[in-house]
C-alpha cells in the first residue's frame, strides 16, 4: 500500500474485467434524456446499481433505428454486464440481441413477456380504463381519444384498448371521428385537437394518451377561445411536472418514473445474480384530479 501511494498506481479496469469476467457497467438505452419520464428513470437505475459498484453506459438513440443498432453492437463489444432498454420497439434487432448476446436484458415501459424478456411497466390497459371511466362518471359520453402511436404496445395499443373497454362496458358508442392517433409530440396533440374541434358534433371530453400531447391539445383549445373545462374537459397521462404548472392545471394519470428505474435496476441485479423470481413488475398508478374536467348534468 505504501508503494501504491508513492507511485500513484491506478488499477487497470480492462485487465481486471478480463480476470473477473465483469466490467461493472450497465448499458441503458433511451430515446431522449430531456424527456420528463426518461431522465428520472435513469436516475432511479443509477441510484440502485451504483450501490453495488456498477456504472452506467448511457445510449441516447433519438428514436433512430441506426443508433439502436450501433449501441447494441457497442454493448456487446464492450462486454457490459447487463442492459436496460426503454422507448424501443420490439423488432428483429432486439430479438437477436436478446437471444445471441448472452447479456441480461430488462425492458422498461413496455411488455415483452411473450419473448421471455423481463419487464417493468404499469398496467396500461387498466390505467386508461380508469381515466376513461372517470370521465364517464362525470357525465361525459361524447369522449374522444388522442392515442399514442398504435405501433407502441404499452402507450399506444394498451391505452387504446383500456379506453375502448371502459366505453363498451358503459354501453357508450365510440365514434370513428373521435379516434385520433398522435405521435407523442405536443404538436401532434395540437393538430389532433384541431381535427376533433372540426367534427360536426364536438366531443365534450378528450382522453389524451400522454401529457406532452395533452399540453399541445390544451394549447389549441386556449388559442381558439374554447373554455377548459367549461366547453371541453381534458385528461392526460404520465403526470409530468408541466401538467401541474399549466393553467388550468391538468388532470392526469400519475406514474413514478424513478420507481420504474429503481425496480428495473433491482430486476437486472437479480438477473445478474441468477436470483430472479419475477419476470414482470407492475408499477401502481393513480388519477390526479385538477382543473380540466367538468361534471355534466346527466
Question: Could you walk me through the main structural features you see in this protein, from its secondary elements to its overall organization?
Answer:
With 298 residues, this protein is of the alpha/beta class. The protein folds into two domains: 150 residues, Response regulator (Rossmann fold, 3-Layer(aba) Sandwich); 132 residues, Response regulator (Rossmann fold), CATH 3.40.50. 42% of the residues lie in helices and 18% in strands. The chain has eleven helices and twelve strands. α3 runs parallel beside α11. It is elongated and about 80 Å long. About 2% of the residues have low confidence.
List strands and helices in order, with pairings.
Layout: H1 2-7, H2 13-20, E1 25-30, H3 38-49, E2 55-60, H4 65-77, E3 82-86, H5 92-100, E4 105-108, E5 119-122, H6 124-137, E6 143-147, H7 153-169, E7 179-181, H8 186-197, E8 205-208, H9 211-223, E9 233-238, H10 241-245, E10 251-254, H11 257-272, E11 280-283, E12 286-288
Parallel strand pairs: 1-2, 1-3, 3-4, 4-5, 5-11, 6-7, 6-8, 8-9, 9-10
Antiparallel strand pairs: 10-12
Helix pairs in contact: 3-11, 6-7, 8-9
> Per DSSP, what share of the residues sits in E-state strands of 2 or more residues?
15-25%
CATH superfamily of the largest domain: Response regulator
Largest β sheet strand count, sense and barrel closure = 6 strands, parallel
Class derived from helix and strand content: alpha/beta
Our Rg estimate from Cα atoms comes to 22 Å
Q: List unreliable stretches of 5+ residues.
A: 15-20
How are strands sequenced across the largest beta sheet?
2-1-3-4-5-11
What count of helical segments does DSSP give? 11
**Record field, number of beta strands:** 12
Q: What is the helix/strand order?
A: HHEHEHEHEEHEHEHEHEHEHEE
Percentage of residues assigned to helices = 40-55%
CATH fold field value of the largest domain: Rossmann fold
Report how far the terminal alpha carbons are from each other. Answer: 80 Å
> What is the overall pLDDT average?
90
